[in-house]
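Bumping with the actual sequence this time:
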Amino acid sequence: MLQRLRPYMSTAALALLIFYFGVHAFTGEGGLLRSDQRDATLIAKQRELNGLARERRDLEVRAKLLRDTSMSADLLEERARSLLGFADPRDYVIRMQP
């Protein structure tokens, strides 16, 4: 019986290998059936990128205001108080746990 099936063994092994890779092409981590999940991840990453770009623009504006050529007195005072831990006697200070 085994002798009669021996010529078909390599064909069967090749067919199983093709089937294995075909299944993983559809259902694997980067498979065709996971495109919705990839699209959702892409949208989330784009939102995160847009938020980081807005934050960077804000930080660039604040850094520009701290340069010698365009010094903002209010921003300088805010940063100095924040870094040194000082407060104006007229300020209300609310301490919060980190």
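The tokens above came from a reply further down the thread. Helices lie at 2-5, 9-27, 35-65, 73-84.
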